[in-house]
Every structure is written in C-alpha cells, then in structure tokens.
Amino acid sequence: MRLRFSGMAVLAVVMAWGIPATAHHSQAFYFDTSKAITLEGEIVRVEWINPHILVFIQSKNENGDMETWIIEGSSPNNALRRVGLKEKLQPGTAISIRVHPSRNPLYLNDELTVLVTRPNDARKSSRIVDGGQIRFPNGDVETIGGGPAF
C-alpha cells in the first residue's frame, strides 16, 4: 500500500516543526552579553511565571534617586530546581546581582513577558536586564538565569 501526504499535511508538519524555535527569544538579541554590571538593591516583587521568572528590585541611581529594575531569570521550572531559591527571593531582601544590560529597547507587556519594541516607543525601558548570579546578605550566591557570574 502506498502512503500519500497532501500538501496541507506536509505544510502542517513543517509549521509544527518550527514552533519551538520561534517560541523562545535569543539571549544575545535581547541582552548585550559582552557587558556585565552589578546592581544592588532590595527585592520588591518576584513573579514566578512562564516563560521566565521576573525579579523587581529598587536600586539607587548615581543621583541617589530610586529606580525599579526588572531582572529576567530562567524558567520557573529551572529556578525551582535550585533548592531554597524561592524562599530566598522574598520582598524586602537586600541583594547584589550580576546582569547583562539590554541590547535593544525592551518592554514588559501586560502578560509580564519581556519583548523588543521600537526605539521611539514610550513603553521601552533600559532597566530590563538579564539576571545571572545573585548574592544574598548572608553571602550565599545563587544563579537565577544565564547572565554573568561574580
């Protein structure tokens, strides 16, 4: 018996094959992985959501004004595998964290997903960064994403 595929079936397979590749972004497209900065501040909020956890911190800028930074971490599944991390990432905790700055203008949409925007878009923020290692007040160092290390 001869098996036949219609053009629509082949198209469906090709499209389905490409879905995982388009479902995730490139770290190097969103963030400048050649640069690393250290932020110090206090955790104000943590969102354990897909596709990435988000840690919001308040930090003083060079003028002494408070700014909110959004740190994109790994997937919740990967982060939860780090024993004790969820208990440590609590509002009010002072931290130091190594991050990659954004390469392109980014914004956080209503579903709390980090997306690229146009340079003239009012939603853009230069304070959305890629999280790496985080240092807690007791000296513990944990990794929350693919960003830089201490």
Which characteristics define this entry?
150 residues; alpha+beta; OB fold (Dihydrolipoamide Acetyltransferase, E2P); two-stranded antiparallel ribbon; 8 strands; 19% helix; globular
Account of the 3D structure:
The protein is α+β, with helices and mostly antiparallel strands and 150 residues long. It has a single domain (25-143), classed as Nucleic acid-binding proteins (OB fold (Dihydrolipoamide Acetyltransferase, E2P)), CATH 2.40.50.140. Helix content is 19%, strand content 33%. The chain is built from four helices and eight strands, in the order ααβββααβββββ. It has helices at 7-22, 27-30, 76-80, 85-88, and strands at residues 37-47, 54-60, 66-72, 94-100, 106-108, 114-116, 128-135, 141-143. A five-stranded mixed barrel has the order 1-2-3-7-4. Strands 5-6 form a two-stranded antiparallel ribbon. β2 and β3 (66-72) form a beta hairpin.
Strand order of the largest sheet: 1-2-3-7-4
Percent range for β-strand residues: 25-35%
> Within the CATH hierarchy, at the fold level, what is the topology?
OB fold (Dihydrolipoamide Acetyltransferase, E2P)
Poorly predicted tracts of residues: 18-22
Summed up, the domain count is 1
- Give the CATH level 1 class: Mainly Beta
Instruction: Name the structural class.
Output: alpha+beta
N-to-C CA distance: 63 Å
Shape: globular
- Main sheet record: 5 strands, mixed, barrel
Instruction: Tell me the number of helical segments per DSSP (H or I, 4 or more residues long).
Output: 4
CATH architecture: Beta Barrel
Helix content: 10-25%
